[in-house]
Amino acid sequence: MKNRINAIVIFLLFLIPLFTVIYYFEPIKHWIEDVNEKYAVTETGQDSESQQFFNFSRETENFGEYERSDFGNNAKHYGIDYHLAEDTPVKAVTHGTVTRLFDNEFGGKVLQITESNGNYYQWYMHLNDYKVKEGDTVKPGQVIALSGNTGKQTTGPHLHFQRMQGGIGNDYAEDPNNYIEQLPEGERSLYDA
């Protein structure tokens, strides 16, 4: 008797979901078609809105005045921060030369690249590890470091990307947003996540 009850329960546990799927097959089919349509690349080669949603931005702080900060009033932020798990591969976004690797009290481990045009400089900050050394020539897409949570001025693991024109340091920093947006993979050109 006990075996019969077990068999009936298992049978029902199998049948109920099966009948549910069969009953709702047509609505499910339409839902799947809608999802496929939303994920498709448009005729112009652009991602659909839904695909862009799932490729969400990891930006947590933009250039300018801090939006989320305990660093005081009128504190400036000289780059863009991207939330990344520790040890996420960080990539070079342009051809250039690694001109400096250093530790900074607030920025942690910092990697500096001089772009091949010689007029722009980049800082990648809060890194855990470097995958290049000073003097190395880098190319777009090359893994140059691993993201981290180093330095005092951090609220969690992330990558700070800063671009400077005509000199090195915060006084030369410019908003890198337009530059990043024109990269082949946008902000994802900076990391493999």
From TrEMBL:
The cofactors required by this protein are:
Zn(2+)
Family affiliation: Belongs to the peptidase M23B family.
Q: What is its EC number?
A: 3.4.24.75
Tell me which Pfam families the record gives.
Answer: Peptidase_M23
Transmembrane regions: 7-25
Protein name in the entry: lysostaphin
What the entry lists under Gene3D superfamilies is as follows: Glucose Permease (Domain IIA)
- M23ase beta-sheet core domain mapped to chain residues: 76-166
**Which controlled-vocabulary keywords does the entry list?**
Hydrolase, Membrane, Metalloprotease, Protease, Transmembrane, Transmembrane helix
GO MF term set:
metalloendopeptidase activity
Q: PANTHER family, from UniProt?
A: MUREIN HYDROLASE ACTIVATOR ENVC, PEPTIDASE-RELATED
Its catalytic activity?
A: Hydrolysis of the -Gly-|-Gly- bond in the pentaglycine inter-peptide link joining staphylococcal cell wall peptidoglycans
Q: Which gene encodes it?
A: lytM_2
**Leading EC class:** hydrolase
Q: Name one GO biological process term.
A: proteolysis
